[in-house]
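Changelog entry

Holo records now carry the ligand SMILES as an explicit input line rather than a separate metadata file. Below, a converted record for pyridoxal-5'-phosphate, shown in the new format.
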Amino acid sequence: MLDITTQLTTNPKQKPAPDELGFGHYFTDHMFILDYTEGIGWHDGRIVPYQPISLDPSAMIFHYGQSVFEGLKAYVTVDNEVLLFRPDQNFKRLNNSNDRLCIPKIDEEYALEALKQLVSIDREWVPNAPGTSLYIRPFIIATEANLGVHPSNRYQFIIIMSPSGSYYKEGINPVKIMVEQQFVRAVRGGTGAAKTGGNYASALKGQEIASKEGYAQTLWLDGKENCYVEEVGSMNIFFKIDGKVITPALNGSILPGITRDSMIQVLKSKNIPVEERRISIEEVVEAHNNGTLEEVFGTGTAAVISPVGELKYLNDKLIINKGEIGEVSQMLYDTLTGIQNGSIEDTFGWTIRL
Amino acid sequence: MLDITTQLTTNPKQKPAPDELGFGHYFTDHMFILDYTEGIGWHDGRIVPYQPISLDPSAMIFHYGQSVFEGLKAYVTVDNEVLLFRPDQNFKRLNNSNDRLCIPKIDEEYALEALKQLVSIDREWVPNAPGTSLYIRPFIIATEANLGVHPSNRYQFIIIMSPSGSYYKEGINPVKIMVEQQFVRAVRGGTGAAKTGGNYASALKGQEIASKEGYAQTLWLDGKENCYVEEVGSMNIFFKIDGKVITPALNGSILPGITRDSMIQVLKSKNIPVEERRISIEEVVEAHNNGTLEEVFGTGTAAVISPVGELKYLNDKLIINKGEIGEVSQMLYDTLTGIQNGSIEDTFGWTIRL
Ligand SMILES: Cc1ncc(COP(=O)(O)O)c(C=O)c1O
Ligand SMILES: Cc1ncc(COP(=O)(O)O)c(C=O)c1O
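Structure line, unchanged by the conversion:
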């Protein structure tokens, strides 16, 4: 196992008030950095004071988008311990993304060890008000100073952390989502299953259109036939139709969400039928029209569950479950957040206590 | 028109020897920077010594890939003047890319003025050995320090310049190109027509596979039906079949190359029939099999023309024009490079002298 050196800040920042947190605005006192140099491999893992990154203007990240990232959270439990939720899965997915983007793989165990040390050092930054958490952002950027188009020969793997506020300040609020018709997020053979910057950049335009029409997020359809449901901006999507829960299968163009996987496991453990398969937007509309579309919800690290209250498709506005959170959505939310805050026993072995 | 301030370097770098140039390794003494701040617009245009960019680790460019770029060249003419080739087209395309990536547009005339001033200041860096040129890289990156997924509220527009060597050191060398089967570069509704980092990151994997098999570049097929020819890694593609020159139409998923457009205009001016339309890989194979596939060539700023000597598709290896440069390819190459080095009169009005 590689070493990790630590240089503590001499100038700790003031922590923001719990109700000012929001998402992704504030960062803790320290960050982790690991360098990659071709011929040497990953080296010089270090925890250092949070600080700017200085790169040559020709650094590849500024030109050719070779980057991957992850997003996970640390929670304070009811017993005032800190736990991480399935961090091993995030580093595994990071390596899958690395493979697609021609970035050298990291040692997953080492990354987890580095993360644990980093969270321990910034322990006081993990907020403990209900619903708050410490959002953790591991990412890798190509840093070679060269304008040739080829995989970079240098990278930095960095972890930064941001205390983040409660997603649902006034109870769980169903969101309105719009089916995107013109733009496509990803297609089979592309990078949709990887967590890479380009996917998010390409999604902004659809997002902008949805926002203008008053919708919170875009529901993406597949890029080939433009009729199968893929996922939402930063969530996977589930439909409860006639008692069965259906979510698009991992087809190579959607992100394999860790919350998605957790939800499927919880559903199975409760004997609620769940199917991973192709589902067309027409099937959803039809289910709505014949009264069998019982619940729709998105899943992701940020909100855990986001019930969908309205789905706009062409000129139709489907109102789902009277715009209220459904029974299964509520159960899944309670189970997952319960495991995350330690109030429900973690029979799945998902959590890692520091 | 906005101002441009200039701060000259006190520490000029040594210029590399002409035969060491290569591509994208060396950078001139100065760079241009323009900032964007929401509510203010683009501001503080300045020419400064070439220097690192320092950004917060949460700067959006490191996470969500919101970036666009351009590539063009300055040439020393036979009369020892410096000219730019169609720079207005590059800034126009940059703005089209900006639109797709939700980046605020730049003032194209201002950008051109800034570029001219920058090239004038670094005039001595424009190499003048035959085939060499000054490669110019304008690019825009999202710099807001925030992990929310939304268009950035801050950007930097930067121009850096790199003296670059002759693409063809020992005469024009036809390249071997492989048709990619598994991976997809872009799909209609995606970002293929924009020059944004993510497109290049997603193409690396196909490129890697091609390289391993001894091919210089990937020929991409469309993402929907996986049978229509799109373009090569960093070139548009042309086929001469039975006396007619055919190139894929601008369908929204390929980059509208400026060299491509120039070639079409030159062909028309010489009364050589040229068609922009959909062309399937099967049509190309069939033309090869019945002996009517006369020439294949890529076009782009880097090489101007890259004749294709071999095209691999599935298990077939099509040898084109005995692996030699064709007559039309040679004529196009001579015409364009002649206009660029001032030895042929620019009847198209493409060049701008400093
Ligand atoms: C595109 C996309 N889909 C789905 C998800 C949900 O993934 P996870 O549950 O691992 O957070 C995310 C968020 O990370 C995402 O960005
Ligand atoms: C993907 C792609 N296609 C085509 C081209 C050719 O464009 P241009 O002729 O403007 O250089 C380039 C190079 O810039 C490119 O990157």
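Spot-checked after migration. Chain A has two domains: 4-165, 175-340. The CA atoms of residues 102 and 151 of chain A lie 6 Å apart.
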